[in-house]
Amino acid sequence: MFNFEKIVPSIPYILEGIGVTLQIVVGATILGLILGILLALCKIGNIKPLRWFAAFYTSIFRGTPLVLQLMLIYYAVPQVFDIQIQAIPAAIIAFGLNSGAYISEIIRAGINAVDKGQMEAAKALGIPYSKMMKDIILPQAMKNILPSLMNEFITLNKESAIVTVIGAMDIMRRAYVVGGSTFTYLEPLLIAGLIYYVMTLVLSFLGQMLEKRMRRSD
Amino acid sequence: MIKIDNLKKSYGKNEVLKGISTEIKEKEVIAIIGPSGSGKSTFLRCINRLEEPTAGVISIGGVEITDKNVMKMRENLGMVFQHFHLFPHKTVLENLTYAPINVKGVTKEQATKLGEELLTKVGLFEKRHEFPNRLSGGQKQRVAIARALAMNPTAILFDEPTSALDPEMVKEVLEVMKSLAESGMTMLIVTHEMGFAKEVADRVLFLDGGILVEDAPPEEFFSAPKSARAKEFLEKVL
């Protein structure tokens, strides 16, 4: 039933896709995290227009398919703004903007869950708002929401497979290409699945390590 | 040093403070007592604007507290909370050094030196590298007092500092507060510890229903309260 021998020479080619997938996932994670923190701060702040903007942003990016957002950025941006955009940067932007919306909700909930007394204690010491958020509130919020954040990153890692529709040569795309050229689809797809699975395991492991480190103050 | 003039605070239609005026001199220790719901905590929290007063003027050292200078004023006005509110992700020593370094711009060495001195003073030098969650309630509150002191404040506000403690830990915290009072710190203490108020306070403010009903030295207040409400309250608690 299986014929892995036929595609063994193509395995290194598929493995190279890990680099592409990682570039997209890491880039999108960083962008999403920064955006998520900024949007969360807008949502809990007192400035009405920023709150409206953040709420609107979140509703748009959660309310439309990710694959649509990806294709809009890849195909529509060059048409509207007359600039060329490569598949990988387009993917990083699309995934980053999208996960920013989800992450902002996670962080907002995390900030709200921090004991109000922490904010009062910081205020009473004369600590300015920005430092209070950065050094007192966010570190405590992050600790509580780490599992949810890891979930988001794991999802992102797997969902990145849809970049295949804009032709980025990630793991998924390469498996498909190998399938097409050898007329053997099952085996390369299984290999791709295994790679994603191992990447997820590594990511979960890193998350657990981080969580353990952050729990040392308990 | 702290002057409070016609302080009012309402939550919607509910008027919690109905115009309180008083003046606190330097080195004075003030016990603020009264039945629950009398507005004593709100009164204290209005002083450093954790609650925004609805009306009235509060000035410290002749300077009126406004939205603009409130951050600066808070640097000089320590606060100790019922539930400690130590920063759980920072060690005991970091709890003491964070604000001096990041608010006052003290060097890390200086802040550490002062922090260690203060921890020695409250008897917790050995715990300096522990996280707050490893401490008992009494120890946490002593750290919280040391944290307030680390900013070198001109006065400290205490909001029921022993109410969340197990009975056997109340004493160690009161001891620290007593020695602080003896060292000449200006203190405003919302408390239910009548014995402590009697012994340590220079003046007792008795609040009821958002009104400053009595303002008297403890000897006078506890032995011969003037108002019926204070008499009634003391009968219940003593």
Task: Describe it.
The complex is a heterodimer of chains A (218) and B (238). With 218 residues, chain A is mainly alpha-helical. Chain A is built from nine helices and no strands. Chain A is flat, with a radius of gyration of 21 Å. By secondary structure, chain B is of the alpha/beta class. Helices cover 39% and strands 25% of the residues of chain B. Chain B has nine helices and ten strands. In chain B, the strands form two sheets. Chain B has a six-stranded mixed beta sheet with strand order 6-7-8-3-9-10, sandwiched between helices. Chain B has a four-stranded antiparallel beta sheet with strand order 2-1-4-5, covered by helices on one side. Chain B is globular. The model of chain B has no long low-confidence stretch (mean pLDDT 93). At the A-B interface, α6 and α7 of A face α2, β6 and α3 of B.
Write the SSE topology.
The complex is a heterodimer of chains A (218) and B (238).
Chain A: H1 11-15, H2 17-44, H3 48-63, H4 66-81, H5 87-113, H6 116-124, H7 129-159, H8 171-182, H9 186-214
Helix pairs in contact in A: 2-3, 2-5, 2-8, 3-5, 4-5, 5-7, 6-7, 7-9, 8-9
Chain B: E1 2-11, E2 14-24, E3 29-33, H1 40-47, E4 55-60, E5 63-64, H2 70-75, E6 77-80, H3 92-104, H4 108-121, H5 137-149, E7 155-159, H6 167-182, E8 186-190, H7 194-200, E9 203-208, E10 211-216, H8 218-223, H9 228-237
Parallel strand pairs in B: 3-8, 3-9, 6-7, 7-8
Antiparallel strand pairs in B: 1-2, 1-4, 4-5, 9-10
Helix pairs in contact in B: 3-4, 3-5, 4-5, 5-6
